[in-house]
Design goal:
Blueprint lengths: L1 H20 L6 E6 L5 E6 L2 H22 L5 H27 L7 H30 L6 H6 L2 H25 L2
Antiparallel strand pairs: 1-2
Helix pairs in contact: 1-2, 1-3, 2-3, 2-6, 3-4
């Protein structure tokens, strides 16, 4: 549970820091960059575009919190909590680093370092999720236990959060593309 709380805090930090630095940000910021930090799509700097990633991180943390609360049997419960705690933490670190990197947009060397950090964090998150799922289901246990615990309300909430996540990803870029 500590990792989940930390993930929420890490997602809130850019929401506090970025408005303080807003006047020092360039007129356009990268919305999508490649691994080397080269801008693929640039957007106008607005409050909506700078808060896009922190809000996406909060959504990931909320989904992880819901999945964390799923009650499974025996050792699967332990791995379930570990999986979603670590995924929330790594996701928050990834979104936080990516959010703050816009402050260094002009320095390609620092951006490259940020990209490596983001790549490593993303890899850790994906590995943790896959490893945890393997540990939970290595004995060919079906997903029925998850299905039984994820009631319709939780499924609807997760679906709505995923929809908002997609909209937050796309709409600011579509509206403010440069």
């Amino acid at each position: 549970m500590v990792f989940l709380i930390v993930s929420f805090v890490l997602n809130i930090i850019p929401i506090i820091v970025l408005p303080m630095l807003y006047n020092n940000l360039p007129n356009n910021i990268p919305a999508f960059v490649d691994f080397m930090g080269n801008t693929m799509i640039s957007v106008e700097t607005t409050k909506l575009t700078i808060f896009r990633l922190p809000f996406m991180g909060l959504i990931v943390s909320m989904i992880c919190l819901i999945m964390y609360t799923v009650k499974l049997s025996d050792i699967k419960q332990k791995y379930n909590k570990i999986i979603w705690s670590i995924v929330a933490l790594v996701g928050a670190l990834k979104m936080g680093v990516t959010s703050i990197e816009i402050c260094f947009y002009q320095n390609i060397e620092i951006i490259k370092i940020f990209r490596i950090i983001v790549f490593v964090l993303s890899g850790i998150g994906i590995f943790t999720l896959l490893y945890g799922i393997f540990k939970i289901y290595k004995n060919k246990v079906s997903l029925d236990e998850y299905k039984n615990e994820l009631n319709k309300t939780k499924i609807i909430i997760i679906g709505m959060l995923l929809l908002v996540y997609i909209l937050i990803t796309i709409i600011p870029v579509y509206i403010h593309i440069k």
